[in-house]
Design a protein that fits this description.
heterodimer, B: 310 residues, mainly alpha
Chain lengths: 280, 310
């Protein structure tokens, strides 16, 4: 965190360290025919500084994903304002890379064509050869350079996650929104992917908003952990984390510092979890 | 069990020999030689396939021979069981078809029916695809039209043929209309269902990447619905033949359906069977073409986790 790596191949580093996201008194209410109105989140005030890694941790049903969807412009807040780079988000926010627990790869495209997908959208004026080079470079960064010709169904879950990560990074978005991206993976794979993510971010500093229900993951990755409570979703605590992540993640994970923070956040979640009904 | 023994017992001895002289064009690319076990399993699989094909051909021969020899003029032979007036016999059917061929009516009538099938199929499939896609992608229009389409769908299709005859006359146009309608509904329904079935998360993923509507349709909706669309095309292709022949049977002076009704009108049983056999061959050909097309378009579906391309 102290040293920001220089990225020679991209121009993003020139402007600033990513882009800030702001939630100002944001609430979201869902109305459906069958049940009463459901308040997913209520009065959220949260500022994510440019270039910081913020994790949101909380029980299921606390509106974490709703918050991310609003930052991506896929959902409109019922009240309040979501800002991105200072201006209100009105349509879909195309300045972000969005990764969810589902890898959302297109099964009929080969891995390389999946990674190329964002470059096929308007606004990427590059030659075919340049795009191919970008895709190859990105696949190499996630260690999948040999698997470009495969189809997603031929890869393991962890590999598919890496493809999704490569796809999110290939167009160099200023911001990454990640919704439990490593949720369905086994512990070892998670650790390895967390390490890879941090490694990639060390080279290209980005703003990251990362949702998880795993407190340890939240603490390990973030500059700042935001703890959510459920029913309705609201912020119950914000914790700034200052860890040295330059070395071994496994070692950092065992440090007393991490244990102390995790313990504290755990008790916070427990005391705030008095609601009987959970999932939404 | 003799066959099972014969394949199993000499297998270990025969595999090295086979591997030696077998050019093995498929396997030579990656591993130089398959292990004896793999070679043995592969050999057993191949043997099973041949036994299967052999049994099928044998059954076909038995059926045709049985038909040929158990049918005849009543009392002609002691083994004659069925009057050939009712079921004809393979040799007579062959003569009938051969006769048409000599008179030059076989291929001209096949061509008429094929033309109706292809054109009607093209019209119906295009309309079904376009309208299904449009209604499937615009939620409101879809919701408005759904009950109307269901009502139309429940009309007995055959009942519309007289109407088409009034509208489009006795020529090819009324046949095209009938074939197109049969194909339309199947393709339309499948396209509609396929478009509605698209994973919304995939669409959102592309939206965040900056996709416009056209990108969403071309890169997600259409390929995702392709499985459904192809299923619709596949099921409707045989119906194109059914539709063409049915319309011809009701009113026409050309085509396979006409040949069939004419034979029947002349109490020419062999001709009726001949027409049926020709149609069967046409149906098999249509089916083969569809399978081939599907195989090409959905190649990604055959890839499993193992990377086995089959």
């Amino acid at each position: 965190m102290s040293t920001v790596a220089v990225t020679p191949q991209t121009g993003a580093g020139a402007e600033e360290l990513g882009a800030g996201i702001g939630f100002e008194d944001v609430s979201k209410v869902f109305v459906s025919a069958e049940s009463d109105a459901f308040t997913a989140i209520e009065s959220i005030d949260l500022t994510i500084e440019p270039g910081t890694f913020v994790t949101i941790v909380g029980p299921s049903g606390c509106g974490k994903s709703t918050l991310l969807n609003m930052a991506a412009g896929l959902l409109k807040p019922s009240s309040g304002t979501v800002r991105y780079r200072g201006s209100p988000v009105t349509g879909v926010n195309t300045d972000v890379g969005y990764m969810t627990q589902k890898d959302n790869l297109l099964p009929w495209r080969r891995v390389e064509d999946n990674v190329r997908l964002p470059l096929e959208m308007p606004g990427h004026h590059r030659s075919r050869a340049e795009k191919t080079a970008m895709v190859e470079a990105q696949l190499a960064r996630v260690g999948l350079e040999k698997f470009g010709r495969r189809y997603p169904a031929e890869l393991s879950g962890g590999m598919r996650k890496r493809v999704a990560l490569a796809r999110s990074l290939v167009y160099d978005p200023a911001t990454l929104l990640m919704d439990e991206p490593f949720g369905a993976l086994d512990a070892q794979l998670r650790l390895s992917l967390q390490g890879q993510l941090l490694e990639l971010l060390r080279r290209d500093r980005k703003t990251v908003l990362f949702v998880t229900h795993d407190i340890e993951e939240a603490v390990m990755l973030a500059d700042r952990v935001v703890v959510f409570g459920a029913n309705p979703g609201r912020i119950v605590h914000v914790e700034d984390v200052h860890l040295d992540r330059s070395g071994d993640l496994v070692a950092a994970r065992r440090s007393p510092e991490v244990a102390e923070i995790c313990g504290r956040l755990w008790s916070m979640l427990e005391t705030h979890e008095e609601t009987p009904d959970g999932d939404r | 069990m003799a066959t099972a023994d014969s394949t199993r017992a000499p297998a270990p001895a025969s595999t090295p020999a086979r591997a030696a002289h077998d050019p093995a064009p498929v396997t030579s690319a990656k591993p130089p030689q398959p292990s004896p076990l793999v070679a043995k399993l592969r050999h057993e699989r191949r043997m099973r396939w041949w036994r299967l094909q052999g049994a099928r051909v044998l059954l076909l021969i038995v059926l045709i021979c049985g038909w040929q020899f158990l049918v005849g003029k009543p009392g002609a032979h002691p083994w004659t069981l069925v009057d050939e007036y009712y079921v004809s016999k393979p040799s007579a059917i062959w003569d009938a078809v051969h006769g048409w061929l000599n008179q030059g009516v076989l291929f001209s009538n096949i061509w008429v029916t094929t033309k109706e099938m292809i054109l009607g199929f093209a019209i119906g499939a295009t309309l079904g695809l376009a309208i299904g896609f449009f209604i499937g992608t615009s939620k409101f229009v879809g919701e408005v039209l759904t009950p109307f389409i269901s009502a139309l769908y429940s009309v007995p299709r055959l009942a519309l043929v007289p109407l088409f005859l009034i509208w489009f006359g006795l020529g090819i146009a009324s046949k095209l209309a009938f074939v197109a309608m049969l194909v339309f509904f199947l393709v339309f329904y499948n396209t509609y269902a396929g478009v509605r079935d698209v994973d919304k998360d995939l669409l959102d993923t592309l939206r965040v990447m900056g996709a416009r509507r056209r990108h969403l349709y071309l890169k997600v909706t259409l390929p995702s619905a392709m499985t459904w669309i192809l299923a619709g095309l596949r099921t409707s292709a045989p119906y194109a033949l059914v539709g063409a022949v049915t319309a011809e049977m009701i009113s026409s002076n050309e085509g396979m359906g006409y040949l069939l009704t004419r034979s029947s009108g002349q109490f020419f049983t062999a001709g009726v069977f001949g027409a049926i056999v020709v149609m069967m061959v046409m149906a098999i050909a249509v089916n083969g073409l569809v399978v081939l097309a599907e195989h090409r378009l959905l190649s990604w579906k055959r890839r499993g986790v193992t990377g086995d391309e089959r």
